[in-house]
Amino acid sequence: MSTLPTYEGILKASTVLDGVTNVTPLQKNTNLSETFNANIYLKREDLQIVRSYKIRGAYNFIASLSLQDRAKGVVCSSAGNHAQGVAFACNMLNIRGVIFMPTTTPKQKVKAVQRLGKGNVEIVLSGDTYDDAKLASIKYAHKTGTIMVSPFDDTLIIEGQGTVGVEIAHQLKQVRPDYVFVPVGGGGLIAGLVIYLKTKYPSVKIIAVEPAGAPSLQASLDAGKVVSLKEIDRFVDGAAVKQIGSLPFQVVKDQVEEVLAVPEGAVCTTILQMYNEDAIVVEPAGALSIAALNLYKDKIAGKNVICIVSGGNNDIERMPDIKERSLIYEGLKHYFMISFPQRSGALKEFVNKVLGPDDDITSFGYTKKNNKESGPALVGIELKQKEDYQPLLERMKKYGVKYVCINEDPQLFNLLI
Questions:
Q1: With CB atoms 3.0 to 4.6 Å apart as the test, which of 65, 205, 216, 288 could cross-link to 69 if both were Cys?
Q2: Which secondary-structure segment (H or E) carries 110?
Q3: Does this chain's domain 7-53+156-323 share its CATH topology with 74-145?
Q4: Is 373's pLDDT higher than 60?
Q5: Rounded Cα–Cα distance for residues 145 and 73 (Å)
């Protein structure tokens, strides 16, 4: 069993990483500070070498291996940031690495790992999910004796991630933090920050932030032990895990002030806001801590607040989905199954009389006609403001429009949208 990570271990990791990783900026954000009437600082791990904090733990672990273990090589499983951190470390330390990734991993992420690892890394695509790739990597490690590099459940990994806190303390100088919002997946980052920051600032309140679709820490706290979630929403891929690490859970279970669950739609809204207002590109997990501020608005007023922006590896091809999820969450995008009478002018009447002046049809498609009188159509309508929704429903009723609101039926929504 691994020993618990320590404050001294984090300081040692900071020395190991000196000159290897970037000292990422701690920036006071004017827009957020004005919005929440507080001093909001962003710890920009999206500006790290591999655009996430994961390199810290991976390098600290691999650099600490004995010469005998280095000769065995390392193996890991990951669909993104951890893989890039391990690949970078393997190249820097000239160690052979094997990285298992799901076959569904986007090509650009696979290429990023290849680029960072160069000739030192072999990528094995295995299974359709991360869990499949993880199982394959474990079997490989047992069969070959290769050293497994855990993404979060290891003392050296946690101590490496904890160096984010060392930098924060140096950068704050005389300012004392009141709240630190930390995204949580497997728990390696928050465990390292709890150890370092709670020692440095005993009164600081650490707020854990999870995606609502994968609340692994909260589930384990409720159970009093580490438990595995049966189903999760994988959209916030950098923090969507079924089970928090055993070692991180031991560290944080009595040390976090509160665990907040942020809806995936709110994460998407934050991604768009950060890009449009501050030209900051964050991945879904990197937006979690900022998105959580809305849930704590009254408590953080007038306080010094730090949000860990954990990563910026956001695939541009995901942006249409991100925008869609944001609009739906904000109440600005609604889908209906509408039965239009099969007569001339029925659709024109709907557009002229039912739609409001600022309502816009963004998608339209007839489904298979099931009788001679009506032809159901899937219609997507975007509103200028969410208050326009109820008047739209009232006009549908007034003009006898037969409809089903798909947004309100999760099973139907997931089937059709």
A1: 65
A2: helix 107-117
A3: yes
A4: no
A5: 9
What is the spatial distance between Cα 130 and Cα 144, in angstroms, rounded to a whole number? 21
Alpha helices in 18-53 (DSSP H): 30-36
The answer to whether 66 is a known catalytic residue is: no
Torsion over CA of 355, 358, 363 and 365, rounded to 10 degrees?
20
Contact criterion met (CB below 8 Å) for 3 and 152: no
pLDDT of residue 372: 47
> Is residue 374 scored above 90 in pLDDT?
no
- Residue 343 pLDDT level (bands cut at 50, 70, 90): confident
Q: pLDDT tens digits, residue range 67-79?
A: 999 999 999 999 7
Q: Which of 137, 150, 216, 310 is catalytic?
A: 310
Q: What is 331-416's CATH number?
A: 3.30.70.260
186-211 pLDDT, tens digit per residue, is 999 999 999 999 999 999 999 999 99
* Residue 310 is among the residues annotated as catalytic for this protein: yes
Counting Cα atoms < 13 Å in the Cβ hemisphere of 356 gives: 17
Catalytic residue, chosen from 43, 52, 54, 150, is 54
Residues 6+ apart with CB under 8 A from 387: none
Assigned token pair, 156: 């050296």
Residue that has been written with the tokens 């291996």 in this structure? 65
Rounded CA gap, 209 and 262, in Å? 7
Domain 74-145 has CATH 3.40.50.720: no
Structure tokens belonging to residue 307: 């949000």
pLDDT tens track for 67-118? 999 999 999 999 789 999 999 999 999 999 999 998 888 788 889 999 999 9
Tell me the pTM. 0.92
256, two tokens: 């976090």
Fold exhibited by the domain 7-53+156-323: Rossmann fold (3.40.50)
